[in-house]
Every structure is written in C-alpha cells, then in structure tokens.
Amino acid sequence: MKKLTAITLLVAATNFSWAQNANEIIKKIRTNFQTINDLKCDVQMNFDIPGVAIEKINGKMFYKKPDKFRVQTKGLIFLPKQNPFEQLELLDDPSSYIAILAGESVVNGIACHNINIIPNNPEELVIMRLMVGKQDGRIHKSELTLKREGTVTYFNTYANATDILPREMEFMADFRRFKMPKAISGDFSSTPVRQDEAQGKYETGKVKMILSNVELNRKVDDSVFVETGS
Amino acid sequence: MRRILEAEIIKAFTRPRSYIGMGSIIALVALIDASFYFTGKEYIDLLFQNFDQVFSLEGTVVNGNLICFIILQTLIIQLPLLVALVTGDLISGEAAMGTLRYSLTKPISRFKFISAKWITAMLYSLGILLLLGVFAYGLSLVIFGPGDLLVLNADGLVVIRDAELFCRFMAAFVFAFISLTTVASLSLMLSAFSNNSVGPIVLTMVVIIVFTVISSFEMSFFDPIMPFLFTNHMGLWRRLFSDPIPTAEIVQSAGILVLHSLVFFGITQYHFKNKDIIE
Description:
heterodimer, A: 230 residues, alpha+beta, 3 helices, B: 279 residues, 3 strands, 5% strand
C-alpha cells in the first residue's frame, strides 16, 4: 500500500512538474505574442496543392488583435481555413487550456520540446501539439487536430535568432483531390476521371507564406479586413 | 468570283433565320450575366463546398473573365447548331426554292459557286463569333470587372492570372472559329446532298448532339472511337485554359478540324460538280 501511494505521488508529482514546465515554456511564447497588436507586411504566397494549378502571388498580410486576419492580393489565393495566428490567440488565455510536456523532437535540425495543448472547452480544436525550440522558445512546428478538417500542420522558419515572428509559415493539410464528372464540369477534353489513380485518396496540400517588410504595431485600420470579393 | 460572293453574302444575311442565332446569343448572354449578377456567389459556393473544408478561396471569383468562360463553355456546344441553321440551308434551300438552277444559268463555274457558298458560311460563323466575343467577353468585363479565372476541370482546378487571359481568350475564339468552320463545312456538304432545307440542318444537329453525348460518357467502351469524333477535338479550346498549355495537342486538334473542313469541302465540290440540278 505504501509502495502504491509512493508511485501515485511520484506520477502526480511528475505530471505536475511537466505541466509546470510546459506552462513556463508557453509563458515565453505568450509574452512575445502580447507585444504584437497590429501587424502589416508583404507576403508571397506559394501553393502546392494536388489537382490545383496556381502560380505564386505577392500581396499584403494584415493582422490585428484579437482575431482579425487578412491576406490582400490582386488575384485569387487559397488560404488555410484557420487564421495562422489562431494558435497564438488560444495561448493568450492560460485558463482556456491545459498544457502538457510530451517529449522532445527535432524540427528542421532544431531541438524542440513537444507540448500538447488541450482546450478546456473544445469546439473546433481538439488538441494542438506545439514543437517549441529548447534554445529560442519559439514555435517551429504546430499540429492542430480539428474536428472537421482533421490534422493540419504549420511549419515556422525564422530569419534571425531574435525574431518573434516567422519569416516563412508553411501550412500543410490532407484533403481529397477535387474531382468532378465531365458532364458537370463541361471538360470533355481531359483524361477520364476513372483513369486517375489519385482519385479518392487523401493527398497533402501546402500553402507557404513568405513574409517581408514586417511592420509591427503600426495601427491597421479595421476597413482592411472588410471582404470585398465574392 | 467577287460578285458571286457579294450576292451570296447578301442572300445569307438578308434572311430572317440568319438572325435567330445572333438573337439567341444576345439573349443567352444577357440571361447568364443577370443570373451571375444576382446569384453567382451561391453557384460558386455550391461548386466548391467539398474543397472548402481545408482551404478557403480568397478574392473575386465571380468576375468578367469567369462569366465569359462559362458563357463560352455553355454556348460552344450550341453555337454549331446555330451555325448549321443557316449554313445547312445554303445549297438545299436554293434547290428547294428552285433558284439553284437559275443561279447556275449564269456563266460561273460550279467550283466558284460552291466556294462562294463556303466562304459565306465561314463569314457567318465569324459574325456569330464576333458577336459572342463582344457580348460574352466585352459586356461581362464591363459588368463584372476583370480578375483571375478559376477553371473547373474534370481533373482539378486551374487559376489563371488576369494578365494572361486576354491572349488566351483570343486564342480560344480563333480555335472556336476553326471548330465552327468544320460544322459549317459539314452542314454545307449535307446541304449539297439534299433538295430540302430541313434535312441537312437536322442531320448536322443530330451528328453534333450524338457525338457530344458520346464524348461526355466516361465509359471505356467508347474509347476506340473517341479520336474519330470531331466534336472531341472541338472541345480542345478548353485546354487553352490549362497550365501549362498543351500546345502540341491543341495544334494537332486544330489541324484535324481543318482537315475535316477540307475533306467536307472537297466532297461538297465533287458531289456538286456531278449533281443533276435539273431534277
């Protein structure tokens, strides 16, 4: 009985210490994010989506707290359903989640702590796993498990050791290739859909955003976020 | 030759039926423009509802270029029927009215006579296309403005930037003209074989409808005959909106269509040269 109590106490103490460690790591990310209120920068959007032919395009990216995000370009673009700052917005309120240290990993050659974030009131987000650099305390990779979309992944690449914001954000998600019968699409000249081996399989689509000329905390007007397209 | 051609053009363009096709194009373009103006977003949302789960499409999807593309896609199948309505009647209509004999009493060769008819058919096809170009491209751009084109193919999506689209649309209209030339030549050929005006028009329509229906079936049973259906090659205009553009494939299809036109023209000339017009 004494042994069992000792083991239970040890496990509880370990969990408590992991949670405490995780919260300490998160705290640094949160502190950095709290310094950002408005963001404006140039962005180059690159797409690698199976079944979608689209060239890269340049534009402007805007972000304003608490949750306004927009990429403005002269042409059509594909964006992740989630605002890329959504994960940081969630971390901003420590009472809304539980953070647990869940091992270590290496992302792009950088040693990272794995931290699982479990929302207290899960709506769309079920769990988020952050890979946070041991040295720099910045998020290098995040995996979000969502109820509808499944798992989506962000890779962050930073230009300088002191940068708070990544210079490259790459979004990856699995989805079923867009297919349409010829009779509906009116495209009688393409290869028949039945001859396409990729049909029905899940494939990985990527959207990479390369940021430059970042302007932090220079007031961004709300009118920027008003959608004009259809 | 010039006088014969002038006479043929006047004959073709003074008939009320020549304006049925043109009127329907204007009406259809106006209807499609109006429907997209009021409910375009719903239509696009419906098409992309599956894709929309992971990625969201940002920007002005419903724009003049998309409307023009949709109009082209919708009308490109019907356009040959409208052309056949006029070109299928060019010889047989005269045979039915009895004016063919009268026309050939003049000192002109049958070759020149048929050539004039054929050029008239080409000019009518060109007229129809110019009208479509002005209304489908010009009017849609005025109403909806420019923007990137989102092309929905059976095997995926292609986004073409606005700056590239003018050249692609012009090339598509040239390709459509080559396609209509084939249909006009076919109907003129059938017209040479008939002495009533309805037969060649109906027969041309039947050929186009049957070939198009077969082309749309994705059954392996039809694979061996697919390359021989000229309607399959007519659909290649759409490949001008691919990325990259399969130039060789498009040029080959255009060549096949031109070859069809020349064969139909040759058969028409051969048959008409030996045709008994006194019957």
